[in-house]
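Project standup — Tuesday

K.O.: blocked on the structure for the chain from last sprint. Re-posting the sequence here as requested.
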Amino acid sequence: QVQLVESGGGLVQAGGSLRLSCAVSGSIFSINAMGWYRQAPGKQRELVAAITSGGSTNYADSVKGRFTISRDNAKNTVYLQMNSLKPEDTAVYYCRQSTPYYGDYWGQGTQVTVSS
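H.V.: unblocked you, prediction finished:
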């Protein structure tokens, strides 16, 4: 059974920072692509950042220069460092693992709220 567990969300003032973590179990973490998505109330879920098994990264235009995705294969964990947070970053953030043949696996989400 594949399990993804996010942590690190919370309340922060605009301009502050948070680091999200996603711990993965039940799969071969190192060979799979990982991503962070977010969803605000009434809006579609959107890609925030992604990282391949080889370490290549991709970011949404809205977070470029502020967010950094990284992975630690020894710990089976992917991180999202979020700096210079803005109120529009407020959303539930989800971790996703992409696998061949079986599709995607999602975490339960962690709430990030940025106050003005």
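K.O.: great, moving the ticket to review. The first strand starts at residue 3 and ends at 7. The radius of gyration is 13 Å.
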